[in-house]
Design a protein that fits this description.
Number of helices: 8
Bound molecules: zinc ion
Helix content: 55-70%
Radius of gyration: 18 Å
Distance between the termini: 28 Å
Structural class: mainly alpha
Shape: globular
Order of helices and strands: HHHHHEEHHH
Length: 190
């Protein structure tokens, strides 16, 4: 989560410089939200997991449909609300598309991988180093381990399991500190 937030802040800086946008607090908030956006399905998981025996919150972690629908929605709502937006539609689209891509690349390093080509292909892809590999077997093994005891676990235990899967390491904290400092400099000098 901290890495997604940090990536969102970095994307905010790069996209703002590219679009020649001055510092905008809401742009920073929106960029952080978009970089974590796919994990919003955890809310659906929390509500529906008992009813449908769900073991994972990977419900909208599908890059092709999610990014396409998201860009369409931003263009439609942006066109309706254009006079009220604090930035251009192109800027919001760039934050959304790059933020979501960074999230899916990050998740591809995990055991569950990502179905990058769904609905055309059901394969789960993982990234190891700079290599893209088929992650079907490892993801199934991980799903099986999540399935064990799922009925007895509370939603807080589900949160803790996911937090333990990826505790923020020293490198992530240093990266966050660096990007936070760059954002502060951008605020001061823009
Ligand atoms: Zn995710």
């Amino acid at each position: 989560m901290l890495l997604d937030l940090t990536l969102g802040m970095m994307i905010y800086l790069v996209v703002s410089l590219f679009f020649h946008e001055p510092f905008n607090f809401w742009g920073l908030v929106v960029a952080g939200f978009f970089a974590g956006f796919p994990d919003i399905d955890f809310l659906l998981f929390a509500i529906l997991r008992r009813k449908y025996n769900l073991v994972s919150h990977r419900l909208i972690h599908l890059p092709l449909p999610l990014i396409t629908l998201g860009i369409t929605a931003i263009c439609a709502f942006g066109w309706l609300l254009v006079s009220h937006l604090p930035f251009s539609i192109g800027y919001a689209v760039a934050l959304f598309a790059i933020g979501n891509l960074s999230h899916f690349i990050h998740d591809s390093y995990g055991e569950l991988g990502i179905k990058w080509l769904w609905p055309f292909n059901n394969t789960i892809y993982q990234i190891r180093g700079f290599r893209i590999i088929n992650g079907d077997v490892e993801a199934e093994r991980h799903f099986r381990s999540l399935r064990e005891g799922v009925k007895e676990r509370s939603i807080w235990q589900e949160v803790i399991i996911r937090a333990r899967m990826e505790p923020p390491g020293e490198q992530t904290i240093s990266f966050f500190g660096l990007v936070f400092t760059l954002c502060a400099l951008f605020y001061i000098f823009s």
